[in-house]
Amino acid sequence: MGRKAKPLQEQVELLRRRGMQVDDPERAREILLEIGWYRMSFYWFPFETRYPDMGASHHQFHPGVTFHDALLLYAFDFNLRHMLMKPLERIETAFRTFLIYQVSTRYPDSPAWFADRNVVSAAQAKSFERVIYTPLRRQNADIQLHHKRFPRDKFAPAWKTLEFMTLGTMCNLYAALNSSNLRLDVARHFGVHQESVFSNYLDVIRGLRNICAHGNVLYSYRPPIMRRGPALGGTQVPAQNLRGALSVVEHFLKIISSRLLDEFRRDLQGLLDEFGVSGPTRHVLARVAGFKACAVKK
């Protein structure tokens, strides 16, 4: 589109000039007004002949690509982000709860172990107090109530404080634990017998969580280089795409709740059945996201 805004009709005509079939121009204009050209461009980009070269200047679509194909990809992405929030929250809660329990019971005389240099690295302890706890105490009513009841406490205990932490903060605390045995015990609880693999899996969950929470593009997610581990039975390295990342989600759900795992797999297949109904869209979901067996809706 260049650097000048274009009216909706001109946007539709530009797509047509680039080779996209637009069967319902009025509906296309409605979608562009609702979602926007820029956001939709992430979903028609893989249908362009230049994909995945972001630097190429030409914008031509493969023959036969329709506006509806891109809209199906957008709808799949939108619904998968929302569907993923439930299992990701369960994984985050399970990790947070076990980490708090394991460290707090290992160091019962240090209820605020997140700021104890005997438990976590000196840099982590210092940073937590200055960067995280001080603002938390100013803003959080529950932490303020604790200090009102226990004015001599420098910190509220971990089981209160860490309930308000992000997944990223919890991952950082885990990595900062001084005891490698303790880190390994936490990993083993979730069925992973190598600390490095567990940290890698946490990075994957963290990346997915951030994408879903902020409404970013999911289908083209490229996780940090994933390692061989129990996510695929330990026999192979997960694919470095969305499907590979979801195998890590499935591993955690298998440990946490078989019911949740079954629900997740059923819902994921339902989305593939519902939105992978056009040949070009199925091709993108297979080639980019790694869903090799996109079912055709009958």
Give the low-confidence spans: none
Helical content (DSSP H or I, runs of 4+): 55-70%
Morphology call: elongated
Mean pLDDT over the full residue set: 94
Output the number of helix runs: 13
Q: How would you describe this structure to a colleague?
A:
This protein is mostly helical and 298 residues long. Helix content is 62%, strand content 0%. It has 13 helices and no strands. The protein has helices at 8-17, 25-35, 37-44, 67-106, 122-139, 141-149, 158-161, 167-176, 180-189, 195-214, 242-256, 258-275, 279-289. α4 (67-106) crosses α9 (180-189), α4 crosses α10 (195-214) and α11 runs antiparallel to α12. The longest helix has 40 residues, at 67-106. It is elongated and about 70 Å long. The two termini are 37 Å apart.
What is the gist of this entry?
This protein has 298 residues and is mainly alpha-helical. It has 13 helices and no strands.
Draw up the topology in text.
Layout: H1 8-17, H2 25-35, H3 37-44, H4 67-106, H5 122-139, H6 141-149, H7 158-161, H8 167-176, H9 180-189, H10 195-214, H11 242-256, H12 258-275, H13 279-289
Helix pairs in contact: 1-2, 4-9, 4-10, 4-11, 4-12, 4-13, 8-10, 11-12
Summary tags:
mainly alpha, 13 helices, 298 residues
